[in-house]
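Revision sheet: structure tokens.
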Amino acid sequence: SLEDLTVEKEIAIFTNTSIVIAVEGAAIFNCIHMQEGTTLIELHHRDRHDKQFASITSLRKINHYRLACNTPYGEQEALLKANGLQDFQMELICEFARIESIIKNIVIHE
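Predicted:
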């Protein structure tokens, strides 16, 4: 987990990697340290439509994919939201086939 690392190590990870796959959140602001042409795959709740990292990735010329994910809560999700749990606080279920497809596409075009 990034929160267990020093700021220097977080920066080093984002600077020296070609693909980052992460759940939306403050740690993704480290994408400002990614190199041009690298890839950020951002996993987010299907109802979240903010694109807070899009301007950073566009300016840095980072390939940015946002993948909408479901939660494991099913019909109980509405009740959880009614009781104050926000969508960005929920666990996500991601389709790994979609992530794999993006990565394969990147590898083919390198």
